[in-house]
Sequence to fold (124 residues):
Amino acid sequence: QVQLVESGGGLVQPGGSLRLSCAASGFTLDYYAIGWFRQAPGKEREGVSCISSSDGSTYYADSVKGRFTISRDNAKNTVYLQMNSLKPEDPAVYYCATDLVPFRDLDPDEYDYWGQGTQVTVSS
Fold:
């Protein structure tokens, strides 16, 4: 059974950092692309970043480029999202997802398996 479990969310001040984790089970993460998405209240779910399995290439939404970094630890079957310089527009529930294919872009409609999400709050 494919399962994704996010953790690491919390409350942080503007300019602060958080590292989100996405622990996978039921499949071998290093063979598949993983995406990070977020959804704020009243807004549509948007893609944040993704990492492919084939060559480890990464992609970032313009809104997070230069601030967020996606990485994977295949030995731990876990993908991370390091978020630095957090801004007031970053708060949302953050989700990781996969479609069990080696490469995907950031269209949430293309992902079939989702975690339960972790809340990120940015406030002073």
Summary: The chain has a mean pLDDT of 95. The radius of gyration is 13 Å. The chain has no helices and eleven strands.
